[in-house]
Amino acid sequence: MASRTVIELDSVRKSFGSGTVAVEGLSLSVREHEVLALVGPSGCGKSTTLRMVNRLVEPTSGRILLDGEDVTTTDPVALRRRIGYVIQNVGLFPHRTVEANIATVPGLLGWDRRRTRARVAELLDLVGLPAATYAKRYPHELSGGERQRIGVARALATDPPVLLMDEPFGAVDPEFRRHLQTEFQRIQQETGTTVILVTHDIDEAARLGDRIAVLSRGGRLEQVASPLAVLAHPASERVRDFIGDGAASRMLSLARVQSADLDGADRIVQPAPAPVRLGARLTDAFEAVAALPASAMGRVPVVGESGDVVGSLTADGILGALRRAADAAAQEPANGVPGDADGAAGSGGAGATSATGATADADDAAVTDAAS
Ligand SMILES: Nc1ncnc2c1ncn2[C@@H]1O[C@H](COP(=O)(O)OP(=O)(O)OP(=O)(O)O)[C@@H](O)[C@H]1O
C-alpha cells in the first residue's frame, strides 16, 4: 500500500520581509498519484506553501524535495516544466487561440507541429471541449468554466507528473463548479497525476482529496488524514472549527453501503419500494429511506451489481454504517504521513537562514518561465 513520496516538505518556514510568518515548521509528504487537499482559513499560508513547491516563493528555511531532489537547487524553469500549475482565473494569453495557449510549452520544448497538434486535440478531448469547436477560439470567446478547463489542459500539456492547483474552481458558480470537480476527478484518475489542491472549501476537499491537510494560521499543520478521518476525528479544536457544522452529513456522502449494514431481504414489505445499490453513498441511501411511504416500514431493498436483491436497509443500518466508517477512519495511522511519527505540528523552530522573499507577480512567472 505504501506508495512513493513525490513531494516532501521538511520543516519548511516562510517569513516575509514584513515580518509575517506565513508558514512555520511545516512537514508534509505527498504520495505518488494522490490528491492532497490543502485547506484552512483565509491567510493560513496555503498559497504560500503551494508556491514554494514550484519556487515562485523561496522558503526561508527547511527543505522541499521533489522526487528526492531539493527544489531550491533545481533550475526554476526546468522545475516548472515538471510541475503543472493551475490558478483561479487561469491567466490564458488573451491574443493566442486556445490551441496556441495549450501548445505554449510543447512549442518551446521544440515539439514538431504534428505532435503538438495531436496533443492539443487529445487534451481538449480530455477536458471535454472538442478541438473542432474550440481550438481556434480566443479566451474572450470562452465562458469562465471553459477558460478554467483550458487552463487545466495547458497545465497538463507536457504530461507533468505533478500538478499544483490553487482554488482552481473558485471563480465558477456552484453548480458548474460541481461539474468541473467531477471532470477533474475523471482526468486525475485517467492521468494518475499527483496533485496538491488548495481550497478553502472543506466540501471540495472532502470530495476531491485522497487526504486532507488542515492548516491553521501561520501555516501550522493541524491534521493530515483521509477526509473521513478528518471529519469523524478532528485532531484539534481548530480543525473542528474549520469543519464547522455538518460533519455527519459530509461523512454520509463519503461512506458507502456495505453488506455488513444490511438486514435480510425477507423483511422487505411488499410491494417493494425502489431499491438502492450496494456501494451507494450513504447520502443516497438516507434519501431513499427518508422518501419511503409509511407502508414500507422504513425499509429499503438493496440490490447487488447484477440487480438481485441482496438485503434490506433501515435508518439504523445507515447509522451503523456511519459508525463503522468513523471507526475504520480512527484506525488510520496518526496524521497519515509516512515517517512523520511526531504528528501534527511538524518539528518547527528551525532558524531562519535566508529570506529571499516572493517572486514579483509570481503566477505569471510560472507560466512564462515554464514557457521560456
Ligand atoms: N508576498 C507577500 N508579502 C508579505 N506577506 C505575504 C505575501 N504573500 C502572502 N503573505 C502573507 O502570508 C500569509 C499567508 O498568505 P497565503 O496567501 O499563503 O494564505 P492563504 O491561506 O492562501 O489565503 P487565502 O485563502 O486567503 O488565499 C498572509 O498573512 C499573507 O498576508
Automatic annotation (TrEMBL):
Keywords from the UniProt entry: ATP-binding, CBS domain, Nucleotide-binding, Transport
Record InterPro entries: AAA+_ATPase (IPR003593), ABC_transporter-like_ATP-bd (IPR003439), ABC_transporter-like_CS (IPR017871), CBS_dom (IPR000644), P-loop_NTPase (IPR027417)
Coiled coil: none
Region spans: Disordered: 331-372
EC number: 7.6.2.9
PROSITE patterns: ABC_TRANSPORTER_1, ABC_TRANSPORTER_2, CBS
ABC transporter domain mapped to chain residues: 7-243
GO molecular function: ABC-type quaternary ammonium compound transporting activity; ATP binding; ATP hydrolysis activity
Transport keyword on record: yes
SUPFAM superfamilies given in the database record: P-loop containing nucleoside triphosphate hydrolases
Domain annotation CBS: ranges: 269-328
Cell membrane recorded as keyword: no
Similarity-based family: Belongs to the ABC transporter superfamily.
Protein name, per record: ABC-type quaternary amine transporter
Species classification: Bacteria, Bacillati, Actinomycetota, Actinomycetes, Micrococcales
